[in-house]
Amino acid sequence: MARSTSQAGESSRSRKDDDSHRQKILVLGWRKAGKTSCIKTVFQGIPAKEVPYFGVTQKIEKINYDSIVPIQIWDTPSNFELDQLEVPVNTFSAVVYVLDMQQDDSYHESILKFVHLMIRIHLINPNIKFHMFIHKSEVLSEDYRGENYAEIQRTTSEEIEDFPYKSLPSQQYSNWDLEDQQTISLIINNLISDIRYSMTSVHDVTLKDAWSRVLQGGMEMLPAVESLLLDFTSHSSADNTFLFDINSGVILATDNRHRTDDLSEQVTEYLSSFLAFRDLYKHVKRLKSPSNGEAETVTKEETNVDGNEGEDEDDEDDNDEPRGWWDDEDPDEQWMTQSTRLMPNTTLALWQFTPYLALVVLLRTETWQARRGTIEYNLTFLRQGVREILSVV
Ligand SMILES: Nc1nc2c(ncn2[C@@H]2O[C@H](COP(=O)(O)OP(=O)(O)O)[C@@H](O)[C@H]2O)c(=O)[nH]1
Ligand SMILES: [Mg+2]
Asked: pLDDT digit string (tens) for 99-109?
């Protein structure tokens, strides 16, 4: 269910061919590190087993994806250098560096390259966020994997500390006093603490979790959405609430309550396996006009719904605001929902929240049985809240 590059659009047509509203993410790394695989398996729905057949990326490829924040991911070819960018590096909000963790003989060199790129980019714009995907982790044994992961982080920090800042051309970075030791210490500290490391593999959910950190890093509205989710969780006596991007299976926000990486991975896994079956029971309804450039269909399920989602009284059609996904929503239409009893005491419930967002709630089975009505009632407020946040973005 990939959203196609060419169709990718937004609610307003005028924005359709214009990239300027998209957050740009630059993906860099050694040849064959797995850059294209990291992007295409998550954002174009290409199965991991097809990864060995990807051709070598010959030139920069831009992949548009519409989520809570519309993004554009730049996949780069091997031997790519920053000066080959056709736009200023300032245009990017994040850089993802992919490093093949099984290449222990060459990764030192790759780390050096990353550090050099990162310092140049940081000095141009300190707001750009850096992520390192330490990739192909499934190949190594657990012990060896942990050791490599720690060593890569340690080496990266050391290289940032040892970098000859004073040798940088000062006219190019005139905002910085690179002769000043304090300035340099500040740069070093910022860089070391800013990098987000993730161990990833196309064969498990770690890659989606890593992308989740990248996307969350670019969501200005994240704290607002998180607090709505937290409110919902506590009013519904649930344990945890997750907001997912349906097509990529990436978590966009959680209530952050007692959350652990293990839990996120389990829920991500659940969502992926559930969505693998969605074709079996959905009926597909064609929208009159697609609101977010994605496939022109919305999955809705006929059973198991209370149908109390129709809170669309405030009619947005009578003003000139750009159209949002909710304008194409039929208030009487029921949204896909599903619940699974994982263990006797734990239930996971899922609702399709917007054409491209799903909400997953983890709660005690007895709470689900006793309070489902209240929970779905609370859900209408949560939806409205999220909708308000999205409509001002
Ligand atoms: N074992 C393993 N191999 C991977 C993984 N991701 C990519 N690869 C392999 O790495 C090779 C290079 O991948 P590609 O995405 O083309 O790398 P790029 O040159 O950085 O774009 C391919 O042969 C893939 O099969 C992974 O998570 N695990
Ligand atoms: Mg490639």
From this structure: 999 887 778 99
